[in-house]
Design goal:
Shape: globular
Number of domains: 1
Distance between the termini: 27 Å
Number of strands: 0
Radius of gyration: 18 Å
Largest sheet: none
Length: 150
């Protein structure tokens, strides 16, 4: 892909855009997983998985403790896999479903803005995971290195 230098405000940047654009998707995929990863690690280190299980049960969802550990696995293992591009589509699906549950059951009543605990940030993660699901791991992913993609 080459940058259309006649459309650029600074045409001299066209070469840089052309050289780096193949890595832009990898950056988005990495950031999507890497930003979520600390949320899972934090739940483990602070012991908040039991509190999370209670919150899940309070919302009327069954098997609160199982879902809390599944959420922890999604926010840690699946996020790490997404960041490095291993089992990319599976990880994107897990995170996308997780964000959909967060939106529907936990944050919908708070509205849109994340400053009030709303759906804005999980909605962004969901949209990114949908896009990543359809694109897959791409060139800078472990999936590509091992020659297989799920």
């Amino acid at each position: 892909m080459t940058a259309q230098t006649n459309r650029l405000l600074i045409p001299a940047m066209g070469g840089l855009y052309t050289r780096l654009s193949p890595y832009s998707y990898a950056l988005i995929r990495f950031a999507t997983g890497a930003i979520l990863l600390p949320h899972g690690v934090q739940k483990l280190l602070t012991g908040s998985i039991t509190r999370m299980a209670a919150n899940i049960t309070a919302k009327g969802l069954p098997l609160g403790e199982v879902l809390a550990y599944l959420a922890f696995a999604t926010e840690s293992a699946a996020a790490l896999c997404l960041a490095i591009g291993l089992f990319t589509r599976v990880a994107a699906t897990m995170i996308g479903v997780h964000m959909l549950v967060i939106i529907c059951f936990f944050q919908w009543q708070n509205g849109y803005f994340w400053t009030k605990g709303g759906i804005e940030f999980p909605l962004l993660w969901l949209a990114l995971c949908i896009a990543i699901f359809f694109r897959g791991g791409d060139r800078c992913a472990v999936d590509n290195l091992i020659g297989r993609e799920v």
